[in-house]
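Repro case for the chain-ordering regression, as requested:
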Amino acid sequence: MVRPEIRSGYRVTIGIECHVQLKTKTKLFSAVGNDAREAPANTLISHIDLGMPGALPVLNEAAVVLASRAAFALGTKPQPFSKFDRKHYFYPDLPNGYQITQFYDPIIKGGVVTFDVAGEQRQVRIHEAHLEADAGKSTHPVGRDYSLVDLNRAGTPLLEIVSEPDIHSSEDARAYARELYLLVRYADVSDASLYYGNMRFDVNVSVSKTDELGTRTETKNLNSFRSVEKAAEYEIDRQIALLESGEAVVQETRGWDDSKQETFSQRGKEEAHDYRYMPDPDLPPIVLSDDMIAEFQKSMPLLPNIYRDVLKHLGLDLATIETLIDSPANTKLVKNVLDESDAQHAKRVANWLVNVSTEDDDDSQQSDNRVSAEAAIKLSKMVSDNKLSSTSAKEIWQEILVQGGDPEALAQSKNLLQVSDQGEIASIVQAVLAENPKAAEDIKNGEMKAIGFLVGQVMKQSKGKANPTLAQAVIKAQLGL
Amino acid sequence: MISQWDSIADTADQVLTGQVSATELVQRSLSTIADKQEYNAVIATIAERANERAKEIDTRVAAGEEVGRLAGVPFVAKDNFLAFGAETTAASNILKGFDAPYQATAIERLEAEGAICVAKANLDAFAHGSSTENSDFMTTSNPHDKNKVPGGSSGGSAASVILDMAPFALGTDTGGSIRLPASFCGAVGYKPTYGLVSRSGVVAMASSTDVIGPLTRTVEDAAIVMDVIAGRDPLDSTTIDRDEVSYTSLPNNLAGQKIGIIKEYMTDGLEQAVRDRINESVEKLRTAGAELVEVSLPSIELALACYYIIMPAEVSSNLSRYDGQRYGFSHPEAATLDQSYNWSRSEGFGNEAKRRIMIGTYVLSSGYYDAYYNKAQKLRTRLIDEFNSAFSRVDFLLGPTAPTTAFDIGANIEDPLQMYLTDIMTVAANLVGIPGISIPAGQAGGMPVGLQLLAPQRKDRELLGLASETEKILV
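-- result from build under test --
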């Protein structure tokens, strides 16, 4: 570790390239299924994905729509004119010998991502974002003299989002990565499952004591926010240590070893490819009219910062807001509850949701909420109307969240409905007062804390179904207070 | 030359009315191919599948079913078309043994109208050449003189038509590869507007100039084939809408047509006898009432240089997929991935493919891209402007298809630059994307001369009309 006083003498500069897998039904250039998660190897392929002679790419319009949405999510508009280029290199999982990407005229130019880190606003400008086809997957079985290639992923549409070097700490790098994740999920551009590698980050780090940028390294293929932060942190320390000992930072591509929590050298600059970019003559340019762009904009879902404002107005604290924000389904539910009822119910539902939210890096169990705003409001109203204790409400909430269903019917079948019948409670209170004359006397003498004990006795006798507020009122009434 | 084939329309009509069977036509085709084997026009026949299809067509005709406007008509496809029933090699060692898993759209459309592919024609490997001498397998002979080349790269296709093997053949034209062999063999060769015929299923050479078209004995035959294969294809995003009117419904008026003679094509390096035939054609057109004027396209002299940058760039990219990993030739002794790449490609590609890969790789390299590729693209834009401006003054353009008649086999093989010059009068149309046609305009020294006619983009029907009328007065 570099000592803080030495470290503070350096300015850290970080830029991030992020690959996002777009949630189209079919691949970018072929009419083959795009969901390679569970498919046996080499079953989602066509003559186009295999790079057969005479095969021509045909652009999937859905990918253009999603990229356009991403443009709005990144605070800009899609370009009215963009086109595809070929990036050449030989590798067995790249069947054509070139990747189709957008080098000269990307679909997104500019943009900005705005987010908070510990209450302070950060802005990271977007340099550009381009559409490209993913390569296949190579595996190299240990101890074997062959490698295996699976082309199911070949041709999957990716959007590569390239930031400007506007990030200056590993913590901010993590926050930026998370914000991109939120943006593409809220914009409904990508499933963005980190678990399935739908989002991958390449982190460019340099350090310098002057205004001039230092030599940078690029650590590739990070697949969690934590590894983005750790890899950046590791590189900052490593580079400063090198410079402090009089050595130079080598411009290179590095990998991340998650078990050792270290970056390692993969490829030096001298081994860098000349990709021989060339316009792809098989694909006409993407031309978007003003009307089309306006149409895309109209169909934009609400973005995280809008929801953050909504949640802030409910009086929720920052930690609760950020936990909720991790799930678009949750925030949408809270907003729907707000729109269809009021802030009191929305806040209660928000708090229920936070208690069952998962960690931000573990999104393998992503699923939509089964609970409707209508059911959530109904459940919340039962609490407000004293029909259900808050403990019982949480129990029912857990159930309808997973299985759906009507909260009232569920409360009834579980025998959780509170007794709010004055007469019934009055007779229980009568019995309890008779059994506990000392406590009754204490209360009369002004020792109000004993009332809690009596309410507890009423709850016990009613097997938890008595409405505690009502019980307290009846106790006071019977004691003449 | 009297042909054993009637016009395509008449032949199909005879099949549909039961005067001749598709099986007989396929037999006629296959036996002619066998008789004229020594010309090396054909790499492989598709006998089994052709006979099966013929039988099926005959059954359907007998049953009174709809069969199509090319019922039973045999044809030959250049071996860079993916087709069932025989290997698709593009005359290259690296694709030897490749069985196509799907068919070219052009083949599919012809088959849908009842045509039957009987053989795969020889070509310069990957269509790289102007003589078929660059075929990795064999050199095709000119039907008029066995010691001369048939032109290229669709040399096998042009020769097969003139050798009477089939009523028509399919070719591809990237820089002149349909028109040039048509000129050298005395056939009609039609290069449509870029994008009018789908490239899907055709081994790519230079994607931005590749087009597909017919080689036939008459313009009428070329028109009917065009009418079947033209039009948008969801498998090729560069295809364009076809003419709503049938390409067989041709304008037949020569009088008043304004035709520009390309000045730059009538000067340097043009063989005298070829010039004479072109001048005679011009006079005949004048006599028929057409208005002929000289038109200058100054940048056309740079077209060849421009073409030999853009084309190899695209070739180097398009040939990347032939890496010995998934199909085609893979070096059996390679022990590592790098060896597999290097050895498979070194042995699988011929000299011309390697030459173009190297030139293309060079012009696309970082640091050279702007000096070569980008500059060539700018010149291409200027050429397009000059042609547009010419076409604002005239309806069509005219010139020779090639500066010479067919040359001797071996004459240019050691001199790639001299060979490239053969394309000098054809490449501009490819760079500009306009339609062009070569039709026979007599002979010089016993060898055919081709007259080239060019039209603005999408004026294919008009061009076929002009060519059809011109053909009548030249015969």
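Ordering looks correct now. Chain B has a mean pLDDT of 97.
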